[in-house]
Amino acid sequence: SLLVFFVVFILTADYVKNKRPVNFPPGPRMFPIVGNIFSVDRKKMHESITELAQTYGDVYSLRIGQRWMVVINGFEVLKEALITQGDSFADRPDLPLQRMNKGSSVSFSNGNLWKQQRRFTLSTLKYFGFGKRSLEPVILEEFTHITKVIRGYKGKPFNPHIFLNNIVSNIICLLVFGHRFEYDDEKFKKITKLFEKGLQLEGSIWTQLYDSFPKLMRCLPGPHQTALNIWKNSKNFIHTKVEDHKQNLDPSDPRDYIDCYLNEIQMVTTKGQADSTFDEDNLVACVLDLFVPGTETTATTLRWAFLYMAKYPEIQEKVQAEIDLVIGLSRQPSMEDRVNMPYTDAVIHEIMRMANIVPLNLPHATSREVQLRGYTIPKGMTVITNLTSVLFDKNEWETPHTFNPGHFLNEEGKFVKRAAFIPFSAGKRVCLGENLARMELFLFFTSFMQHYTFAMPAGVKPVLDYSFGLILPPLDYEICAIPRQK
Ligand code: HEM
Question: Among 193, 203, 258, which Cα is nearest to 230's?
């Protein structure tokens, strides 16, 4: 009878704690304790979340474990939430795994802290990325390093995964630490691995369990402990870099992001600014924030790009023909070429649309009670803005599930912008690295296409399948990069 009492007690407590809020969007039937954990297929979560909208409407609810969430689907409603009512949807939910970390970054903070860190990081990226110290030559130089490695394969199959991570990481290293690493540098190998692993674990079931039962999970072994350790090791590495920077900082001539941040700390301390959020713990968190979302995303997009080119050789040929015409073979590409290369630009956009690498966006939360499509969403509610449902919205794209650069071209072959192209999200939280990512994608992709033709090894068909996580990478593959010039 004690057992019966216990079960009844747990179920009642669960019912009371997780009562559906008033006028809340509808959702699938739930089980006690675990909620809707069985309503979604974990291996293709974004696809099942998109499908559920057909039954429950564009705005519906789920409870994953102990966390209620509202899911928003389709371009029109997402636009209303992220842009028209942008202020109300600009927060991030409180995630225990993030709370465990000392120091706050841009991507998981709210309020004044988020505003100050985001403004500072954006203006520093602008200064180094596009202003006086443009990253364009840095990206082009990085290509000259990687192309030596790739040429070494002489058109034989290789797995491009690590090489793409390396080149993209090196751009962030330059921005943040002021220097690039050689690819075989032991420290570099270690940190790139750490950052990659950390992100893989971020979307896993373990971190979700941790999210629902933090106190319990903290005592239990499992991969979430590895995640916590990875963050700790990465942070230690960055701390040593910050210490090095302090030794030879010249405030009048900041070399990189860390110098700028140290200057900012100095400035707010001198001014005695009481509400300042600039300190060394936040500096380390912000540096991580540039590495983790800044590396895997761009590198993963390039991994998809190679696969799509191998899958559609006729499209690859058209890209190469445009490159030969506009740039030729004797000089490197530049950002100024982009306006004259509508086809290549359209192909890059279509790769990003189809690759859909952040399928469910980063989670948002409401900063106040909001009305959306007749429903009431309470303050502090987790909100999933489903980017998959927009990038494949049948009301927005002519052939949503087919690779078709024509989505971004008009009848005269000119490039056209599409409002529903939002792989970087939209509104207040729009990706902070969008301009940098676009520059890297254009320069790296065009350079690769200028020098190589990508094809699958003999007898192998390209597999356009993914492994689900916070971001969607293709399954690991081998490819041949056949040199176009001797
Ligand atoms: C946020 C996509 C590259 C830094 C985001 C978000 C998406 C995204 C979907 C979430 C937006 C939201 O919550 O509404 C991408 C894609 C990339 C890319 C598709 C490349 C192809 C980068 C790069 C950097 C970066 C290169 C850094 C240099 C960030 C940061 C945030 C963010 C810091 C958090 C912004 C905030 O919370 O205010 N990105 N990203 N991303 N991204 Fe990117």
Answer: 193
Q: How far apart are CA 202 and CA 407, in angstroms?
A: 33
- Residue with tokens 């954990």, as numbered in its chain: 37
* Residue nearest to ligand 1 atom 10, measured at CA: 362
Nearest CA to 390 among 416, 419, 349? Answer: 419
Ligand 1 atom 15 nearest Cα = 424
Q: Give residues (CB < 6 A) around ligand 1.
A: 106-107, 118, 289-290, 293-294, 297-298, 301, 357-358, 361-362, 423-425, 429-433, 436-437
Asked whether residue 82 carries a pLDDT value surpassing 90, the answer given is yes
How close is the Cα of 292 to the center of ligand 1, in Å?
Answer: 10
Mean pLDDT of 220-225: 71
Q: Where are the alpha helices (DSSP H) in 280-362?
A: 280-311, 313-326, 342-355
Could you give the dihedral angle defined by the CA atoms of residues 427, 428, 429 and 433, in that order, rounded to the nearest 10 degrees? 80
Give the C-alpha separation, 112 to 225, whole Å.
31
Reading the block at residue 262, the tokens are 């140290």
User: Which tokens hold the place of 59?
Assistant: 């705005």
Q: What tens digit of pLDDT does each residue of 345-397 get?
A: 999 999 999 999 999 999 999 999 999 999 999 999 999 999 999 999 999 99
User: Which tokens in the block code for residue 80?
Assistant: 């209303």
One DSSP character per residue, 144-169 reads HHHHHHHHTTTT--B--HHHHHHHHH
Return the sign of the alpha-carbon dihedral for residues 453, 414, 136, 289.
negative
Neighbours of 332 (CB within 10 A): 17
* Three-state DSSP class for residue 399: coil
Reference 96, options 113, 108, 112, 114; nearest CA is 108
